């Protein structure tokens, strides 16, 4: 597991980007934490810089939208899902389990 940040550093409606071999975006959507691949599957854009509405993030480049719960795109131009990752909160810290990748639809 990798450390994302303290819980207090990720308020509701915000996101952070974790750099690594594969960049990961962590979102606080209405108090629920989600982690997905940070790069839009349509074109090279950071989803952590997108617009969050409920459990959906809109890519800042071409407005593709992804469901944070599943990684599945909800509209064009994206056609391919992004991976999702389990998020764990322990001792007021947010961790992302990068070894357990959820299946991509």
Automatic annotation (TrEMBL):
Keywords: 2Fe-2S, Dioxygenase, Iron, Iron-sulfur, Metal-binding, Oxidoreductase. PROSITE patterns: RIESKE. Gene3D superfamilies: Rieske [2Fe-2S] iron-sulphur domain. Residues 2-96 form the Rieske domain. Pfam families: Rieske (PF00355). It comes from the Bacteria. GO terms for molecular function: 2 iron, 2 sulfur cluster binding; dioxygenase activity; metal ion binding; monooxygenase activity; oxidoreductase activity, acting on paired donors, with incorporation or reduction of molecular oxygen. The keyword Iron applies. NCBIfam families: PRK09965.1. This is 3-phenylpropionate/trans-cinnamate dioxygenase ferredoxin subunit. It comes from Lentzea albidocapillata subsp. violacea.
């Amino acid at each position: 597991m990798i450390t994302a940040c303290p819980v207090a550093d990720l308020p509701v409606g915000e996101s952070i980007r974790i750099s690594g071999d594969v960049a990961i975006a962590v979102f606080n959507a209405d108090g629920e934490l989600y982690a997905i691949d940070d790069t839009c599957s349509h074109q090279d854009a950071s989803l952590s810089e997108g617009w969050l509405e409920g459990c959906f993030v809109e890519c800042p480049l071409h407005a593709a939208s992804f469901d944070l719960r599943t990684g599945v795109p909800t509209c064009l131009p994206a056609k391919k899902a992004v991976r999702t990752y389990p998020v764990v909160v322990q001792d007021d810290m947010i961790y992302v389990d990068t070894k357990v990748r959820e299946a991509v639809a």
